[in-house]
Amino acid sequence: MNKHPQKKRPQTREIKTPTYKPVKSDVRPNTVAGGGFIDKANAYRDLHAHALFSSLGRLVAEPFSSIMTIAVLAIAISLASGFYLVLVNAQQLTGNLEASTQISLFLKEEVSDNRAAKLLETIKSNPKVQQATLINREQGLEEFKTYSGFGSAVDSLKSNPLPIVIEVSPKNSLTNKDDLEALQHEFQQNEGVELAQLDMLWLERLQSIIALGGQAVSLLNLMLGLAVLLITANTIRLELHSRREEVIIAKLMGATHAFIRRPFLYAGAWMGFISGVAAWFIVTVLMLALRSSVEHLSRLYGGDFHLLFFSFGQTLQLIAIAIGLGVLGAWGVLIYQLQRTKPE
Fold first, then answer.
1. Number of folded domains in the chain?
2. Is 89 in a helix, a strand, or coil?
3. pTM score > 0.85 for this model?
4. Three-state secondary-structure class, residue 128
5. CA-CA distance, 232 to 322, in Å (whole number)?
């Protein structure tokens, strides 16, 4: 009998390798590492929304400086847009005067009223004539006494020295000086016409004044636009200087210039938008204040002139230009200042 007990062998367990079942994936095939396109678009939208409203909040947080800056911008923009609107109304006046250009036919002294009436019918049948009016000697004398202020002197005359006059209004399509002069020459060839008068010199002078005014308004608007750019740029520069430490920390954390610029650009856009709307109100109120006086003056001269205001499209253009100037001014100063703002 063996005195030494036999050692029991350790029992080995069978290790089963787990089997993995395929799991359905929720990842869409159009996603890439770092998130899908929709997620990136939503994040980009949220960043812009945060910059948009945070920049507005900073303007509201400093009401005094914001109101002062926007007021100066609104005055500059209202001056530029106001001069433009005055020029548009002046061009409208020129167009009306040009369309109502008349040719005065002074008939010879021996022409009788019957012959003048026949000549009037002949002129009306001309396809280049829109309207013709006969003013006989008695009517001409009464008008002269009424508008000249020499009524007592005219009464002392023994005979009526005024000739029969036919006032001819050309077609509205005849706005060219050469066409009007050709029609004048055609009337001058008539036997009963002593003088066919077309006074274009005053119209040419008025057109030259309007053209000069247009150039002056363009130069003035250019200078005022430059002033808006400089005011916006200086405001953004001061804002950037007050937030210099914040910008430096953002740079140390790896923020790009585009990320840092975003709220400042939106601040420039807000200033441009608010000042553009304020400028529209300023110009509209001023034009409303002048409308009654201008239209009363027009009626005294027998005209039907109405002031033109900004249309809906022109209003949108005004606000868009103001926003563009604000963003451009902010962009220009940010490109320069962010290059110089570096951690020490």
1. 2
2. helix
3. no
4. coil
5. 11
C-alpha distances in angstroms, 67 versus 71, 268, 307, 320?
Answer: 6, 14, 31, 20
Question: Would you state the structure tokens that stand for residue 134, as one six-digit string?
Answer: 């006969």
Distance CA 101, CA 194 (A): 20
In terms of domains, do 170 and 286 share one?
no
| SS3 label, residue 8 | coil
Give per-residue pLDDT as tens, 198-240.
867 677 777 788 889 889 999 999 999 999 999 999 999 999 9
Amino acid residing at 114 = N
Asked if 65 and 173 sit in the same domain, the reply is no
- The C-alpha atoms of residue 227 and residue 275 are separated, in whole angstroms, by 13
- Pair 133, 236 in one domain: no
Domain membership of residue 272 (yes or no) is yes
In a domain, 8, yes or no: no
| Contact between 309 and 287 (Cβ < 8 Å) | yes
Q: Which of 313, 276, 327, 251 is nearest to 55 (CA)?
A: 327
Whole-angstrom distance, CA of residue 18 vs CA of residue 117: 120
Enclosing domain of residue 255: 44-97+204-340
Considering the domain architecture, whether residues 335 and 263 belong to the same structural domain is answered as: yes
